[in-house]
Amino acid sequence: MxxxxxxxxxxxxxxxxTGTCPRCILRFCCVGSQTLYRRPYKDLMKDxxxxxxxxxxxxxxxxxxxxxxxxxxxxEHTEEGPDGLNHNGVLQQIPAVNDENxxxxxxxxxxxxxxxxxxxxxxxxxxxxxxxxxxxSADYQFTSFVFSVSLPPQLSVRERAxxxxxxxxxxxxxxxxxxxxxxxxxxxxKWIIHPQLSEELGVPADGKSLFEVSxxxxxxxxxxxxxxxxxxxxxxxxxxxNKQSVFTRMAVIKALEKIKEEDFLKHFPCPPSSPxxxxxxxxxxxxxxxxxxxxxxxxxSRNLPQTPWIIDGERKLESSVEELISxxxxxxxxxDSFNFSSSGREDxxxxxxxxxxPFAIELVNPRRIHFTAEEMKRLQQTINNxxxxxxxxxxxxxxxxxxxxxxxxxxxxxxxYSALIWTDKAIQKEDIAFLDDIKELKLxxxxxxxxxxxxxxxxxxxxxxxxxxxxxxxxxxxxxxKTQAGTYIKEFVHGDFGRTKPNIGSLxxxxxxxxxxxxxxxxxxxxxxxxx
Length: 532
Hints:
Among the domains are: 112-225 and 268-287, no CATH class; 293-410, Alpha-Beta Plaits, CATH 3.30.70; 413-522, Alpha-Beta Plaits (2-Layer Sandwich), CATH 3.30.70.3190. Helices cover 32% and strands 24% of the residues. It contains 17 helices and 19 strands. The strands form 5 sheets. Strands 8, 11, 12, 13, 14, 15, 16, 17, 18 and 19 form a 10-stranded mixed β-sheet that branches. A hairpin with a 2-residue loop joins strand 9 and strand 10. The longest helix has 19 residues, at 154-172. The two termini are 60 Å apart.
């Protein structure tokens, strides 16, 4: 239940006769009862008229609040007409419509001069069903929703004009009305629409939900009605590449904060004039928050990049690790796109063995979000059966925050490698044995020539923790290394024309080169190991 008091009567009278809808009138009377706004439109109109007709100080009219479904709008004109303000701030006589039936015959809907129909037609059952049909056809999985709405920018202009009108009327009564006291249009709209959407969709509205239902409203007269602001405050309106109009909501609000009240009244009618058109629902969209999948991958091919290898728009190799994994995840989660990340990366000709390299994939706007552990295990098997170039393990759903653990202290983590090395001069087993005794070898690595095109020139200090040699023949040996993450192993072997010091070549006093390199372990304790 909510009460309108004596001080509200002139405001109700004034706004009704200037073409303002009942719900906007409640907003300007600072009525905060959510359920009152949900009442059928015709009932609200009838109650406001009764309030004006029968009001007595000792027996104020009460609005009994109920929540039946909304009905099709049939706006009724009021029978009385008070004074209003013209665009110069001067009082003008506002004509009253006395023949209610004639008015309804001429126009089924009289569009509100403040909300442009947002709190009228777009609160009705038909529109709610249209939104829900869009949600159903999009085939999303969700257990709650958050509703967002984008309004035409000139609503802020019209609201300013209506506020100035009401403020002047209240001033006659020795009362004041702060702009922040008015119930915000978006807030009132959500009060009305949330219960209807919730009932129709069968899930609760939740401000923290990852599933968003959004409606974008537009109006054909936006530029026309906001144009005077661009003249008065040109600095507020700057063209943007991704915007069709300079009259964005934020730009208009910024201009309204700067323009003087008297200048506003010179250029915009007060009360705001009746609009020629109703708002249109330009877009009804659904979006699910991203889902994150993590695991570890092994790469067995020496001809497979981690990410697509494309140079100057030309693909060099037909596939990549991220594509072999993500194509199956994209299909199962029905996502729009994905973002791949990992704990480091290997070159196209380097294998990743052992327990594999940790990776995470962000699946953007997925339609399906619920997977059991068994379903994830089957999805992992599907990926593994699709290619002999990669295998994945520990595939699981994770949170966004958990992915940070993959990157935490990346420079301090260790990795182990196995390198097949060639030397130009013949070697014996005893020639390389001393490498096994070297511990915590400090390197100065200048950015390798092969990556200088994509990484800044710098000298990085890296550490080789341990080495263990394995003699093969007089020109070949295998070297097992445990190193600081981020160490360039190839350059440590051949020296990169002296850009890495010391290097295997300088330690052996001969030319050395690397023939094969394998990553044997990435010592990041994430994601959690599963029973695969």
